[in-house]
Amino acid sequence: MSKQKETKKFYIETYGCQMNVADSEVIATVLTENDFVQTKDIESADIILINTCAIREHAEQRVYGRLDYFNSLKKKNTKLKIGIVGCMAERLKDELLEKKPFIDLIAGPDAYRHLPEMFETTESGQKAVNVLLSKEETYEDILPTRYDSNGISAFISITRGCDNMCTYCVVPFTRGRERSRLPEDILKEIDAVKNDGFKEVTIIGQNVDKYLYEDKNRKVNFPALLEMVATRIPEMRVRFSTSYPQDFNEEVVLTMTKYPNICRYIHLPVQSGSNKILNLMKRGYTREWYLDRIAMIRKHLPDCAISTDIISGFCDETEADHQDTLALMKEVQFDFAYMFKYSERPGTFAAKRLQDNVPETEKKRRLNEIINLQSRLSLNSNEKDIGKTFEVLVEGVSKKSPDNYFGRNSQNKVIVFPKAETKIGELAQVKVTHVSSATLIGKVVSPENS
Ligand code: 5AD
Ligand code: SF4
């Protein structure tokens, strides 16, 4: 009589970008389809997986800390298997094998289909490693399990990889070449999240503007895909991220103007306001080009919120370059920004050819100035919303004040308001009464009072 295979419980922890969240959902599907069962209780897991980010050194340090904790669990349960997946697995395979010998499995972003066999290999005490990058893998036939979402907002990846080669960035090395998914597969995922009751989708890629699906009969570019998505789910909100200034074009904005369910929010990372630094970063655009993109957005969509990413203290950045960044921020009046200190990443062009020559204290000082300025700009932007009424998708109960709900408006701003008759997952009309630099505060109004 054959012995019945034991069902293994896996626990998965995710770090890094939205892409990693989407990838963890793919991993969960691959494993559950192969008779593994997901658990949210780390102590009862037979397998712990950590999906990692390599974008800054700090992100990697956090993962090392978690790995040591997992090892302490392994000492109590010697059968426990530990797997590291994602960008850090891709970048540091050899170092991880050497420095963290308790790791059983290492899988790069294109190896997730093979995880079941890889775990099989680890059963006999061997290590399983697959960090091969593929030119084709898009996990097209895998319908992700949205195990950790709020049930309201889902992320759907439309491209994988990146061909841009910005000189500071590790992503092209960890995620490989750019690939676009088949439009029908994306729409299938859209239908699935709609049927599951989700109210909003964000279509994601490292550079969504490069989305291109071509075969003998047709060519679908990003604006065309955006239109297909918006018309497929007119009753749901559609967001997209991330846009790339060099490729971001008027066609995308015109598509947005046609469909009110495409949210009025664009994330357009500028990185620096200095042409010298943009050139060293090989971003492929100038400050003037960027400002022209902003003017184009404002012309067609005056109520569109714009956010950005900024890096402080890149190689050879002088005080004058830094001042150019501050001036650009003021000129654009960003509604929100993600701001980082430059962190040299081994293997990148900058690590090989440029000097990481801005002292750490100076990087920090400049970053603080950038953060302080952005907080003033965000406050200015929020103050302009006082008295306005927005349609808000209610996402949940506010963590800080349990009598309040929180949600987002089309511009992606978080609004907190007393519960009233609305429900989580519904749209509410909320009038803004107070603001801080981070949040709008308001109250529910009926449409005729808005
Ligand atoms: N150091 C600091 N920030 C970085 N980013 C990417 N690479 C680095 C790096 N080496 C930032 C960029 C990017 C965001 C996702 O992370 O601003 O847009
Ligand atoms: Fe995402 Fe880039 Fe981090 Fe990889 S390195 S997880 S692609 S942010």
- Spatially, the strands of the biggest sheet line up as 2-1-3-4-5-6
Q: Using the alpha-carbon principal axes, give the shape.
A: globular
Count of distinct strands: 21
What small molecules does this complex bind? 5'-deoxyadenosine, iron/sulfur cluster
- Low-pLDDT segments, ≥5 res: none
Averaged pLDDT: 96
Task: Report how far the terminal alpha carbons are from each other.
Answer: 72 Å
Count structural domains.
Answer: 4
CATH superfamily of the largest domain: Methylthiotransferase, N-terminal domain
| CATH topology tier name of the largest domain | Rossmann fold
CATH architecture of the largest domain: 3-Layer(aba) Sandwich
Q: What is the top-level CATH class of the largest domain?
A: Alpha Beta
Strand content: 15-25%
Helix content: 25-40%
**Major pleated sheet:** 6 strands, parallel
| Number of alpha- plus pi-helical segments | 13
Name the structural class: alpha/beta
Chart the SSEs and their pairings:
Layout: E1 9-14, H1 18-32, E2 37-38, E3 47-52, H2 57-76, E4 81-86, H3 87-99, E5 105-107, H4 115-123, E6 128-130, E7 153-157, E8 159-160, H5 171-175, E9 179-180, H6 183-195, E10 200-204, E11 212-214, E12 219-221, H7 222-232, E13 237-241, H8 250-258, E14 265-267, H9 275-280, H10 287-300, E15 305-312, H11 319-332, E16 336-341, H12 349-353, H13 360-383, E17 389-397, E18 404-408, E19 414-418, E20 427-435, E21 440-444
Helix pairs in contact: 6-7, 7-8, 8-10, 11-13
The structure holds 5'-deoxyadenosine (5AD) and iron/sulfur cluster (SF4).
